[in-house]
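Q: What residues go here?
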């Protein structure tokens, strides 16, 4: 009789160990899926941050171009993305560097003589937007896009008609001439 009890108990240890192995396998697979998802989320967040900083560099490029060369036009830059294992590049599009406020520079010592309306140097606020697209490899597939709007105040600065020309529609010269006459300095 003790022999039959022993044979019945020997099979239950095998079933219990098999059940424990199945549970551990399911837990291992679940952890693998969670880890893979977290890795993808981290890579996406890194891409989004890189595109944000690319758009921010577009604002800096446009500002430097306007300050150094007085070039207020919209431009497009292409920069290689070398900081990741997935090859790609950034296309950065900037809007015209457009003046939205032109006021007397009351802090400028050069403007002390004469009335405020006749002064050569002014305080000028410009509006600018930059959009960065991350392209995958050499294709035109866009991985991520970010747009930044910015307002830049320059003081002291001389007013120029070239900056104001960006504000009117080139297709309607009559309308543009009227607008330029209204905002001429």
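A:
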């Amino acid at each position: 009789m003790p022999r039959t009890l022993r044979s019945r108990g020997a099979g239950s240890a095998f079933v219990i160990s098999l059940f424990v192995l199945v549970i551990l396998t399911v837990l291992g697979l679940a952890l693998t899926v969670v880890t893979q998802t977290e890795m993808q989320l981290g890579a996406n967040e890194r891409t989004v941050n890189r595109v944000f900083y690319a758009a921010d560099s577009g604002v800096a490029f446009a500002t430097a171009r306007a300050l150094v060369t007085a070039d207020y036009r919209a431009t497009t830059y292409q920069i290689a993305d070398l900081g990741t294992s997935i090859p790609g590049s950034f296309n950065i599009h900037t809007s015209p560097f457009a003046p939205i406020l032109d006021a007397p520079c009351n802090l400028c010592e050069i403007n002390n003589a004469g009335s405020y309306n006749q002064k050569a140097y002014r305080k000028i606020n410009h509006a600018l937007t930059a959009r960065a697209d991350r392209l995958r490899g050499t294709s035109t597939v866009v991985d991520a896009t970010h747009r930044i709007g910015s307002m830049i105040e320059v003081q002291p600065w001389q007013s120029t008609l070239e900056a104001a020309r960006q504000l009117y529609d080139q297709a309607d010269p009559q309308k543009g001439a009227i607008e330029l006459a209204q905002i001429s300095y």
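A: Context that may help when evaluating the design: The helical segments are 2-69, 161-165, 173-183. Residues 173-185 have pLDDT under 50 and may be disordered.
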